[in-house]
Amino acid sequence: KEYWQKIEASNSCIGGCIWDWVDQAIYDPQEMKEGIYRIHTGYDYPGPHQGNFCSNGVIPPTREESAKLKEVKAAHQFVEITMPEFNREYGIATIEIKNKYNFTNLDEFDVVYDIVKNGYVIYTGRTPAPAATPNHSAKVWITTKKATNINKLLKNGDEVMLTVRLVHREAQVYAPAGHEVAMQQFEITPRGPLAKIKSNGAPLASTSSLHEYVIGNEMIQAKFDANTAQMTALAFNGKDIISEGFGFIYDNHRWIENDRFGNTENGLEAEGKIVVEEVNGNTVIKTVRRGSLCDTEINYTIYPQGIIDVEAKFVPKSGDLRRAGLVCGIDSTLNNVNYYALGPWENTVDRKDGVVVGRYSTTVDKMAAPYVKPQSSGSREELREVTFTNANGEGIKIETEGNVSFSALPYTDTDLMNANHYWEMEKRPYTVLHLDAWMRGIGNASCGYDVGTLPEYCVPNKELSYKLRISAVKK
Question: Which DSSP symbol is given to 322?
Fold first, then answer.
């Protein structure tokens, strides 16, 4: 106690940092046994200290695995796995494994590999790793012919990935047999574009007034504000999907405490432009919204059979944006999330080493990373498809074309910014869904001059776009 009082009295940066670090693990053990986590940290107590600072580290106070831990492990793994060649004719991947250990031969390990088609693991194989002494490489050949027909996959637009892992063959003092020490994923065939759709179903009816446009039939219904050009409602088979008035709109707010970026404004002009056209039996709503930070053009194509395509274009007016994407509020009962993207851990454009493309399941309540100090989190990069369903298995599916990252939380980024603890937060009556063409990397200038996010991970100051296809999921 006397030691920490002296540290406090010093009023130094080191004193504040140490205080923050030590206090991150203050909690009530009995409450934790009961599933109640009320974690406290340095900023809950008198200073001197620097707010949360060390609170959101690689290892959380609860000592659970974290996305940061997975990223650090992957970035520093002692085995480098590459695929210098893939023979399409014979379906054989040449995998080169470089040993970066100082005292370990790779023949102590096994190579485990998954062939992943459209996000599903369709074949798993295992073979002993070749011998390779420290600082040497060896090769292993993996055939995909048994599980795939490459030419057919390319024709159909199917995506195939090869995930290669190096695992312990036998149990170690620190880990069981099968413990993964290195991992890498490779693309065999790229995903194709979204399929073309022909109009089918009862004709769409549309009405307009000074205030709104309404388009739909029994399968799909949509409303747009005539002044702002923002979607205000979307329903499938009479079931509302969009939270009242909270349709797609540009958003630039992302709260990372050390980023010191608390501007919550999106910079959009008060009015937008909207044009409604009939094209090949479908209704196309073209919207434009100018802004001081980013201009947006969103075109909605509504198909009579109950499908809507959303083509969004973003034109940044600054190289310092936090996001180039859309946000909307969706029905909070659609709490079950099944996604086809990088996962299962949260990831960002500058933190992809510890995750692989696949299909994963979670809930909206579990998507946020439970940092001691709440912040924007839960994002998943390289989204291909996501469904949101209720307890009855009903909901929506969103398919993508282009680069899209997403997050779905019961809080806005402003809610996270203003909160000190997760256990104090109140959920919104809707789910906040972000769909970004780009979100700025997490790197920031918290520890000195000119050490901010690397340029390649900042939002590019150029036109960005993507396409979404939204349809109903039935029980």
Answer: S
